[in-house]
Design brief:
The protein has 10 helices and 10 strands. By secondary structure, it is of the alpha/beta class. A hairpin with a 5-residue loop joins strand 1 and strand 2. Bound molecules: cytidine-5'-diphosphate (CDP).
Length: about 270
Amino acid sequence: MSLDIRPDSLLVSFYAKRTPGGIRRICFKNLFLKQCRSSGVKIFMQIAIDGPAGAGKSSVAKEVARKLGLKCLDTGAMYRAITLQALSEGIDLNDDQLLGELARRCQLEIKIDDQMDTLIYLGGEDVTEKIRDPEINQHVSIVARSPALRKELVFLQRKIAGENNGIIMEGRDIGSNVLVDADYKIFLDASPEERARRRWLEIKEKGRAVNFENILKEIANRDRLDRSRKEAPLKIAPGAEIIDTTACNLAEVVEKVLIIVQGMDCRD
Ligand code: CDP
């Protein structure tokens, strides 16, 4: 194996890992990523970001991905897509087998654009906006309990990770289940009130009428379902770094993540 790295400019240690897909991947530790980027060396790393609704996972993951030149996948969008399809077909949301079968046949397509947004297509139709509807928020955590459905989506998520040499994946079970060998695991949290306030602001900025108490209730309900389900519940993965974002803005959280990943303050 040869690596295009000048030994005098970088301190590199690396090891090979076997991923769930059986692919050997080179993992870097103690690597000064900033120097690597400026030397044109490609960084292959997997970062898992988990946490409850409104903790800031998507915004943080996208920004960190842009800074590190990695792809970023929002796995929640995939559960939302199946929920949309299940609702439109009138499928019983408690039927594990039917949901698994739906995931296999529903022609779910996932694209990651240049902005690191996860775009979702169902049967060729772009449903990226539709999957954010309040109706989906209300039902997605019920659908996401289904082990048969999770099996299908986790398979796809690992496939996407395998196809991209380096990815940031965010969701609920990434560090604990989907990418257990991720190089870095981060758990973002914030108080329920702060998480609801962020969602309330987001929706208000889109010009929609919204009641704060209802959002708080919906978030609490989703937290309860996501944490208590049998299959891959929301939990802190062993070895994960916990960041409480309650009092932080986006830039501060991104900086904390970069410090964890890069081991040093790497602000541009
Ligand atoms: O954006 P928000 O935090 O509101 O939620 P999301 O990331 O879009 O995820 C929506 C729902 O999908 C979650 O509440 C979970 O029920 C489910 N989900 C999951 O079970 N596992 C994942 N890896 C990602 C999401």
